[in-house]
Amino acid sequence: MRFALVCALAVVGAVACSSKKQPPVATHSPLADSADQVMYGARFNLTDKGLQRAQLQADTAYFFEDNTRIELENVHTTFFTATGAKNAVLTSDRGRFNSRTNNMVARKNVVVVTEDGRRLTTPELIYNQQTNQISSDSPFVMTEPNRRLEGVGFRSDPDMKNIQILKGASGMARGISTQVAPAASSSPTR
Description:
Blueprint: H1 2-18, H2 31-34, E1 37-48, E2 51-64, E3 69-80, E4 86-98, E5 103-114, E6 119-128, E7 133-144, E8 147-156, E9 163-173, E10 176-179, E11 184-186
Antiparallel strand pairs: 1-2, 2-3, 3-4, 4-5, 5-6, 6-7, 7-8, 8-9, 9-10, 9-11
């Protein structure tokens, strides 16, 4: 009886020792294998004639093509007015920054939130530093108190006070559904 008990405990002990969980393995981006350089906690100031237009941050930056093309992960961009006040924040899962033009493309789960509460979501967005303009040819939704706009493609300033919807525009204002003509401009009333 004692022998059977010892054997049973030995079997249980052997099973317990062999079923150890392996430690988690960090995901590896394939970009790291071909990048010229990899930077963690990257931060770039986007300026125009000495005026800071935006501050671009990313968890990871992969540099290519003599450091002119930078692929980004977990993007966080803060936009500023001409007086230096923060006016909007963009977040996205991925991005690309061109250091020659200082332009950025944000991709995957792009969200822009202004200081006064407007929120824009789209799968892809382009920021043109020279014109200080955000744009997209992808579907988007912009929400704010008492109003919702959606369409395919837009052009706007980063704080979305002057937005031009390129096509398929529709929206709701205070519960009234509207259809807007293509290339219509929208400017909130203050």
